[in-house]
Write a structure and sequence with these properties.
3 copies of one chain form a homotrimer. Chain A is α/β, with parallel strands linked by helices. Helices cover 18% and strands 27% of the residues of chain A. Chain A starts with a strand and ends with a strand. Chains B and C meet through α4 of B and β3, α3, α4 and α5 of C. Chains A, B, C: Keywords: Acyltransferase, Coiled coil, Lipid A biosynthesis, Lipid biosynthesis, Lipid metabolism, Repeat, Transferase.
Chain lengths: 379, 379, 379
C-alpha cells in the first residue's frame, strides 16, 4: 500500500510539502529505509545518518538542520508522529473471509465480516463478533464468545465458555480456558478438583504467544480492560488481573491472586497464590511476591520487599566478605586490648590495695581474666 | 444436564430431603450460584451469604444454623462433598466420534469409542486406547501409543514412539517427545547429538498447557504414575520424574535428573542436570537446585539450601545494613580504647620501670603502638 | 533400517571385525540395548555391564579388557564414535511429499522435494527451499521464506516476512515473527506501537519447543548462524543473538539486547532490554542480567555480577547469622573493656593530677568514660 505525502502531512498537522504527488510505501529506521519509506530522527546529531538514509522523507524536530537528501518534515515529536503514521502500514491480517477448510459448527454464530483461517475450528454454540479474525488452526471451543474486531492469531486454543471482549488480541500458541491446577490428596493419589468456572477477558486486552490463562475452579478468571500480556505468561485459575496492567514475558500469577489497576510486573516474576498486588505497584524482574503489595509500591527480590530495602541489602552484601575480615581484625584488637588491660590492672592492683577478686565472665567465648596470668578458653 | 436432589443425597450418604423431585443443574459458589445450582458453606459465619444466595441447595456443616432460603444439606465436610458432586457436572469433552476432517493413517489403530477432533492427525503405527479423546488439531506421531481413557486436548503434539498410560491428560499446546537439547562442539560448530530415545508417561499423569517433555538421547524420559504437572513446565531428556510428584507452573528439570516419589516442586523452580531430588522433598518457589536434595528435605533459594538456613540468612541479610553501622561504631570504640590504654600504659611505664619495648602488630590495618605517642596508619 | 558391521568399522576408521556379515539395527545404552544394537563403554570398570549387555557390538577404549559376549570395537573415543554411528539411525521425519490436506497457496513457491504435513498451511508469497520439511499443522505466513533442508516440526507458527536460513530446525509449538511487546501510554490506555519489522534466522540454527521469537518494531530481530535454543525461550523484538550461542530452557532476552558469539546462557536466565552480552560470556542459571557483560566474563546472580564475587558473597552470607552473634559478643567485650579502662583511668587520675569532670557521651550505645582528659570527635 502507499499513502500520499500530502495525506501524511495532514495527519501530522503540518503544512503539505512539495512535491505533493510523492507517495510513501512504508516506514523504517534511517539505516533500513528504502527509497519509498518514511523515517524519523529525534536529535540534531543524527544529521549525518539522515543525509545518508535512503528514506524519501524523514520526521525531524523543529530545530533540526537543513540538509540535502530526504524531505524533512518538522514536528514537535518525531517518534510519536512516526508511529502514528506507521499504523497506516500495519499489514491487515491475511485470510479474509472464511477459508473453505475451516470447520464452523452449524450451531456457531459468526458476525458480519468475520474471517476464519484454514483448518480453524469453531465449535457449537461459539459466537464471534463482527470483523473478528481467527487465524489458521485456531480452535474456538463450545459456547466461547469473542467480541468485535478481535484478532486471534494462528494456532491459538480457546476453550469452552471463555469470554473475550472487543478488540482483544491473542497471539499464536496461547491457550485460554484450560483447566486450573487443583488437586486434593485422597490418601493414595492426587484427585483432580473439577474446574467448572470460565475465563473472562475484557476489551482491549492483548495476550502474547504461548501464554496460558486457566479457567476458574468456580466463577471466573478475569483479565480486565486494556491489560497487555507478553509471551509465555502463566495466569492461574481464579486470578483477577486489573485494568491496564503490564505483564512482561515469562511472569506467572498463581491461583486466586489479584493484581490492581495499572500495575507493572516485569519479566520472570512469580506471584504466589492468594496474594493481592495494589494498584500501580511495580514489581522488578525475577521477583517472587509472597505477600500483599501495597498500592504504588515498588518491590524487588525473592521474597519481594521494597526496592530500596532490597538494593540496600544487596549493597551491604557486596561488602560482606570484606566485613568478615574487619570482624576478625576487631577480634584480634579486642584480644590485644584485653591482654594489655589485664596487665595494667595487675600492676595497678600490686600498687594499690587490697587486690580485688578476679572477675570471671562468660559469653560465646569464655574469657577468664585473673591475676597473675591471662587465660582464654575457646569453644 | 441435571441431577435429582435425591440422587445427590444418596451420593452424599445423607437422608433424602423434600422436595424429592427437585433437580440440580450445576454447582457454583454462593455468590455466583443460579437458581438451579448447588453450593456450599464451610462455616457458620457464612449464614448471611447462604441466605442471600440464589442456590437451590447448599451443603453446610452439621452445626450450621437453620435458615430460610436454600435447602440445607448437612454433611461433615461440605467442601469435599461439594467437589464430589461437582464431578457429575464436568463437561464431557466435545467432538465425540471421529471428525470427518481428522486424518487417521490406515496403519494407526484406534480402540473402541475413541474420539478424534477436527484436523487432528494420527500417524502410521500410532495406537489409541479405548475411550481416549484427541482434540482438534492434535498431532499423534508414528508409533506413539496412548492408553485407555486419555484426554489429549486441542493442539497438543505427541511425537513418534512416545508412550502414554491410561487416563493420561495432556492440555493444549504441550509437546511430548521432541528432541532433547544435546550438542557437542566440534571445533567449528555445535554438532547435534542424535536424540534416539523416547518418552514414557505412566498412567494417571496430567500435564498442563504449553509444557515440553523431551525424548531421551538413549533410553527413556520417564514420568511416573499419578504425577501432576502445571503449565509451561520443561522436562528435559532422560529425566525420571517419580510417582505423585507435583510440578508447579514454569518450573524446569534439566537433563538426566531424577525426582523422587511425592516431591513437590513449586513455581519457576530450576533443577540442574544430573541431580537427584529425594522422595517427598519440597522445593520452594524460584529455587535453583544445583545438587542432590535428601528425601523429605525442604529447600529454598538459589542455590537451594535447607529452608530454615535460607530464611535465617535472609533475616540476617535484612539486618546487614544496620550491622555495618555497628561495625563502624565498634571500630571507633576500639580506636578510642586503644588510645586511652596506650596513654595509661605510658603513665604506668613512667612510674614503673623498666619501659618495655613498643609492640608492633600488623593486620588489614597497620597499628603501631609505641610510647610516647599513638600512631595509626590506614590504607 | 540396518547397517553392516563392516560399514560401521569403515566409518570408525578401524579394521573390519569378523563376522563381517553381521548387521546392526540400532544403538542404545548397555542396559537398554537389544540383540541387534550397538552400544558403548568409556571405562574399563564398565566391563561387567558390557558382559551383561544384550548388544551385539560395543565400542570400547583401546585398553578395555577382553571379554566373552558382545563384539568389542576398540576406538580412541567410544562416545564420539558411538554418536557418529548413531546419526545413521536417526529417523527421517515422516510425511514425505505434500499431504493432500495441506493448504498451499498458489502464490507460494516450494522447492524440490519439499514435504508438507497434514493440515499445514503455506500462505501467499511464502517460499520453501529444497528438501525442507513442514510438519502437520504448521502455519507459514505470507512472504515468509525458508532455506533448504529445514525441518519445521508439527504445529509451529511462522508469521509473515520471517526469513529462516538453510538447515534451520524449529520444534513444535514455537512461534516465529509474532508482534513485539511495545506500547506507549497515551494518558488513558496503553497504545500499541506498530511492529513492522521482521525476524531473520540464519543457517544451522535450532529452536526448541514452545519458544517465541518476536518480530522487530522496525528492522530485524536476528538470530545468527549455528545458534542453538532450548525449549520455552523468549526472544524479544529487535534482539540480536550472535553465532553459536547456547540458550538453555526458559531463558529470556528482552528487547534490543545483543548476545555475542559463542555466549552460553543457562536456564531461566533473564536479560534486560538494551543490554549487551560479550562474546563467549557465560551466564549462570536463573541470573538476571541488568547491564552489559564483558566478553568472556562469567556471571551469576540477580543482578548478575562476576561469578567469583557472587559465590564469595553467598559464602559470606551463609556465615552471617553466626557473625551477628560475634558482633554482639564483641559489643559486650568492648563494653567490659571500657568499664575496666575507665576504672583504671580513675585510679591513675587520683594518683596523678587533678581529676577532671567525667565526660558523658551518647551514641547507639551509651558509653561513659571518665578520665582527666579525653575528647572524641565524631563524623
Amino acid at each position: 500500500m502507499t499513502v500520499d505525502l500530502s495525506e501524511i502531512c495532514t495527519r501530522l498537522g503540518i503544512n503539505p510539502i512539495a512535491p505533493p504527488q510523492l507517495t510513501i510505501g512504508g516506514v523504517n529506521t534511517l539505516e533500513l529505509a528504502r527509497e519509498t519509506d518514511l523515517s524519523f530522527a529525534e536529535r540534531s546529531d543524527q544529521a549525518i545518518a539522515v543525509g545518508a538514509s535512503h528514506a524519501s522523507a524523514v520526521l525531524v524536530p523543529p530545530d533540526f538542520p537543513e540538509l540535502p537528501g530526504p524531505i524533512l518534515l518538522r514536528v514537535s515529536s518525531p517518534r510519536t508522529g512516526f508511529f502514528a503514521i506507521a499504523e497506516l502500514f500495519v499489514s491487515t491480517p491475511e485470510g479474509c473471509g472464511i477459508h473453505p477448510s475451516a470447520l464452523i459448527d452449524p450451531q456457531a454464530e459468526l458476525g458480519k465480516d468475520v474471517a476464519v483461517g484454514a483448518c480453524a475450528v469453531v465449535a457449537s454454540g461459539a459466537r464471534v463478533g463482527a470483523r473478528s479474525i481467527l487465524g489458521a488452526g485456531v480452535y474456538l471451543g463450545p459456547e466461547a464468545t469473542l467480541g468485535t474486531d478481535c484478532l486471534i492469531e494462528a494456532n491459538v486454543t480457546i476453550h469452552r465458555d471463555s469470554m473475550l471482549g472487543d478488540r482483544t488480541i491473542v497471539h499464536s500458541g496461547s491457550v485460554i480456558g484450560s483447566d486450573g491446577f487443583g488437586y486434593v490428596w485422597d490418601g493414595g493419589a492426587h484427585r483432580k478438583v473439577p474446574q467448572l468456572g470460565r475465563v473472562r477477558i475484557e476489551s482491549d486486552v492483548e495476550i502474547g504467544c504461548n501464554c496460558c490463562v486457566d479457567r476458574a475452579t468456580l466463577g471466573e478468571t478475569r483479565i480486565r480492560r486494556g491489560t497487555k500480556i507478553d509471551n509465555l505468561v502463566q495466569i492461574a485459575h481464579n486470578t483477577d488481573i486489573g485494568e491496564h496492567v503490564i505483564l512482561v514475558a515469562q511472569s506467572g500469577i498463581a491461583g486466586s491472586s489479584r493484581v490492581g489497576t495499572g500495575a507493572v510486573i516485569a519479566g520472570q516474576v512469580a506471584i504466589s497464590d492468594h496474594v493481592s498486588v495494589g494498584n500501580g505497584a511495580r514489581i522488578g524482574g525475577q521477583s517472587g511476591v509472597t505477600k500483599d503489595i501495597p498500592a504504588g509500591a515498588e518491590v524487588f527480590g525473592t521474597p519481594a520487599r521494597p526496592l530500596a530495602d532490597t538494593l540496600r541489602e544487596l549493597a551491604a552484601l557486596a561488602r560482606l566478605p570484606a566485613l568478615l575480615k574487619r570482624i576478625r581484625q576487631q577480634e584480634r584488637q579486642i584480644e590485644d586490648l584485653t591482654r594489655r588491660l589485664a596487665a595494667l590492672e595487675q600492676r595497678a592492683g600490686r600498687r594499690d590495695s587490697p587486690q580485688s577478686a578476679p572477675v570471671i565472665r562468660s559469653g560465646d567465648w569464655v574469657t577468664v581474666t585473673a591475676a597473675p596470668r591471662y587465660l582464654r578458653k575457646r569453644r
